[in-house]
Amino acid sequence: MFAFVVRHLLGYGLLVLYMFLLNGCGGGTTAPSSEASADQKFKWKMVTAWPPNLPVNHDVITEFAAAVATMSRGQLTIQVFAGGELIPALEVFDAVSSGKTVQMGHGAAYYWAGKVPAAQFMSAVPFGLTASGMSAWMYAGDGLKLWRDLYAPFDILPFPMGNTGTQMGGWFNKRIDSPADLQGLKMRIPGLGGKTLAEAGGNSILYSGGLVYTALERGIIDAAEWVGPLHDVRLGLDRAAKYYYYPGWHEPSTQLELIVNKTAWESLPKHLQTIIDTAATAAGVALHARMEVENAKAYVKLRESGHVELVQFPQDVLATLHASAKRALDAEAGKDEGFHAVRDNYEAFRDLLDSWDQVSEGAYRQYFERATEERK
Ligand code: CA
């Protein structure tokens, strides 16, 4: 710990010195990219909102940093710090915004809902887009542009970088057989999912990752959602609850983000900007792909172990939650103009994709659903 603090202080001291030299020389960090020296070296720091060694996230972020170093032939190197190693996990946005000690961060936009309510659309909203829909909205719709407008006042440039895929509905110690069972349900479920549950008559309670297991195991809460089989089992949630519900209606896909301090970004020559942009997209594809595979493996293992009961939410429970989600979103839109505007764009895009889905992937999947039903 002591060595870490010393390292931290030394790093900060060097940075202050560097900033002093930079300002003293009249360089500043706001020089447009075209004026940056073509061979100037950049040593950046990146902080994440994830615990150290979080499976998949940690590997992909480390590989992203290595790819940037390789592609830039060492001109831009990125040192990665997990949550708590340099700053607390939930201070990533502020740290990148100030740009004093770090230039980059990795997290999820809904963590910053307190500052930017509409940011939630850039990660996950109940009954919202799946991962492929989210990717379409980002790269071929207005998603990324709207996102950049939302973060601009904070001097932050966001990039999509990964997706958890569809999450699980959560771990329950009581069965949810009908909408009435949601009444008074005490559940760890953050953000708009929590607000939706409250609309449906339940209580959402927030615990950080480390406390979820204890709260559930001791019966302080009836239920808790986290991510999916891979990360949930790591947290020991399969030993704290009897029923594992699906699907994750509250997080039909959760997009993760790379955020870059805009002033630092503008100090980079154009080719380094292109390298970051390209490497982030590639890392995002890798992260989502690995989440799908690792969740599938963890799910099969869990199912075969037989120590938890896997249960699908009944249709009427999902319909109740869906109606509650609409009311929760209406309430948020009434409070924040940005939320209102982004929601309109998001929902129009979702409706467009839904029309196409009915005759493409949706129709294709329907065949297998019916075939499975017929075999039962
Ligand atoms: Ca979750």
Structure description:
The chain has 2 domains: 2-22 and 40-163 and 253-293, D-Maltodextrin-Binding Protein, domain 2 (3-Layer(aba) Sandwich); 170-252 and 311-375, Periplasmic binding protein-like II (D-Maltodextrin-Binding Protein, domain 2, 3-Layer(aba) Sandwich). Helices cover 49% and strands 14% of the residues. The protein contains 13 helices and 11 strands. The chain has a 6-stranded mixed β-sheet with strand order 7-6-8-5-9-11, with helices on one face. Strands 2-1-3-10-4 form a 5-stranded mixed β-sheet. Strand 1 (42-48), helix 2 (57-71) and strand 2 (76-81) form a beta-alpha-beta unit. The longest helix is centred in the C-terminal third of the chain and has 36 residues, at 270-305. It binds calcium ion (CA). Calcium ion is lined by residues 167, 225-227, 251.
Task: List the defining traits of the structure above.
globular; about 375 residues; 13 helices; 5-stranded mixed beta sheet; 6-stranded mixed beta sheet; binds calcium ion; disordered N terminus; D-Maltodextrin-Binding Protein, domain 2; 2 domains; alpha/beta
CATH class of the largest domain: Alpha Beta
Rounded mean pLDDT score: 91
Q: Which regions are unreliable across 5 or more consecutive residues at pLDDT < 50? A: 1-32
Number of strands: 11
Per CATH, the superfamily of the largest domain is Bacterial extracellular solute-binding protein, family 7
Biggest sheet, spatial arrangement of strands: 7-6-8-5-9-11
Shape: globular
Q: Give the cofactors and ligands.
A: calcium ion
The largest sheet, given as strand count, sense and whether it forms a barrel, is: 6 strands, mixed
The proportion of residues in beta strands is 5-15%
